[in-house]
Amino acid sequence: GKTCIINDDMIDTAGTLCANVKELKAMGAGDIYVCATHGIFSGPAIERLNDAPIVECLVTDAIPVEVGGKIKTISVAEEFAQAISAVYHEEPVSTLVGGDFAL
Q1: Under DSSP, is residue 38 helix (H, G, I), strand (E, B) or coil?
Q2: Is the alpha carbon torsion for 52, 60, 72, 27 positive or negative?
Q3: b/e code 17-26 from CB counts within 10 Å (16+ = b)
Q4: Other CB atoms within 10 A of residue 65 CB
Q5: Which pLDDT does position 95 carry in this prediction?
Q6: d(CA 83, CA 77)
């Protein structure tokens, strides 16, 4: 099956996410990766994700998360530092995201 990547803004209890993962598997998906900006991980979320047929769940460290099992984090410290520096020096933050966002 095809490799699938599910991207979301946040993962709270992971109930809907895991239901979607199971549906993808039922439809013949191969490896499934999950990523989100914020891993809130309320209640049974971590257990659900570790039990789900996913390869990995990648979230930022904007919210402190205990890493382990299928949960991995990527640091946003450098991006936050650049944004704080830009604001301090009265420079546009929009240039940090690339593209045509400058006002």
Answers
A1: strand
A2: positive
A3: bbebbeebbe
A4: 19
A5: 84
A6: 10
**Residues of the chain by 3-state class (helix, strand, coil), percent to 5:** 35, 25, 40
Query: What does the pLDDT average to over 83-89?
Result: 96
**What pLDDT was estimated at residue 101?**
52
Rounded Cα distance, 64 and 38, in Å:
9
Domains of the chain: 4-75 (3.40.50.2020)
Note whether 74 and 58 are within 8 A (CB). yes
Name beta bridge partners: 68: 71
Tell me if 60 sits within 8 A of 38, measured CB to CB. yes
Q: How far is CA 74 from CA 2, 15, 34, 80, in A?
A: 25, 23, 13, 13
How far apart (Å, rounded) are the C-alpha atoms in residues 73 and 81? 18
What is the rounded CA–CA span in Å between residue 88 and residue 103? Answer: 18
